[in-house]
Amino acid sequence: MKQWVLVADASRARIFSIPENNKPQKPLPWVLEKEFDHPEGRARATELTTDVPGRVKQSFGANSRPAMEEPTDPKEVEAQSFARQLAESLEQGLNRNKFERITLVAPPHFLGLLRGAVNEQVSKRIHQSVNKDLTLLPARELPEHLGIGQAR
Predict the structure, then answer these.
(1) In this structure, are residues 95 and 126 in contact, taking their beta carbons and an 8 Å threshold?
(2) Whole-angstrom Cα Rg for the chain
(3) CB of 76 within 8 A of CB of 41?
(4) DSSP states of 97-115 as a string?
(5) How remote is the C-alpha of 70 from its chain's centroid?
(6) What is the pLDDT of residues 97-150, one digit of tens each?
(7) DSSP string, 33-89
(8) Beta bridge partners of 102
(9) DSSP letter, residue 139
């Protein structure tokens, strides 16, 4: 069975494929399929926003309300954007029959964003979700933390 492992956080991600004939006694190396870098995920919130104030509707009627919306955390907006980008890449991989099941590895909040961003077809292929930030771990150490094969 073709399997992918996505290891991600809000600023970087790697997709690995695990060889189909992988056996616990003699694990084969994982293959790095794709790497993503999203530097905006590491930026400070002040670096992601502008100094220009929004417009304010000057109306004083009974049903009036300000034109400005509640502020949204810029880092959260960037994390959501990156999760959507990764979800699109997973959808493309599934459409090209690159995997039959996938393991998602990410910190809890970002894992939730990922699960919410993937479409129904990809969601059905999620075999395992791991609430850990393993993005800075060398590839060769990932299998022992996840109990799956061997990375290269």
Answers:
(1) no
(2) 20
(3) no
(4) T--SEEEEEE-HHHHHHHH
(5) 25
(6) 999 999 999 999 999 999 999 999 999 999 999 999 999 999 989 988 888 765
(7) EEEEE-GGGTS-HHHHS-SPPPP-----STT---SSPPP--HHHHHHHHHHHHHHHH
(8) 4, 126
(9) G
One-letter amino acid for residue 40 of the chain? E
CA distance linking residue 119 with residue 50, whole number of Å: 32
Domains detected in the chain: 3-46+72-151 (3.30.420.60)
pLDDT of res. 25: 61
Angle subtended at Cα 139 by Cα 99 and Cα 43, rounded to the nearest 5 degrees:
95
8 Å CB contact between 6 and 103: yes
Q: What is the pTM of this model?
A: 0.78
What does the angle CA 143 – CA 88 – CA 27 come to, to the nearest 5 degrees?
20
Taking the C-alpha atoms of residue 111 and residue 103, their distance in angstroms, rounded to an integer, is 11
